[in-house]
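input
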Amino acid sequence: MQHSHSDQVMVVVLRDLVQQSIPRIISIRHKLKQGEVLVGSEVDFFLHLLQRLSHCYQNYAHDRECVTIFSCIAHMLYKVINLAHENEQKASARTS
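output
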């Protein structure tokens, strides 16, 4: 069975999200639950991942399953970024 180039790209994107991005999000979330703050490379990772998700939404909006996956990851990012923001506010309050 022949797969389109678009399908092949989507497989690579999904594989990367599952094997690389989601585990890193979970690792960062664990760190944040310990009260730590993000370092620059983690902020860069989130910004890059948000750009990738936006690009995926634009290119694969016709595929409901892909949109569901991207939405779940975006929601996970939202929750982790909010936790990071809370930790930053607490850290700022301690140093003020």
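quick obs: The helical segments are 5-33, 40-60, 64-95.
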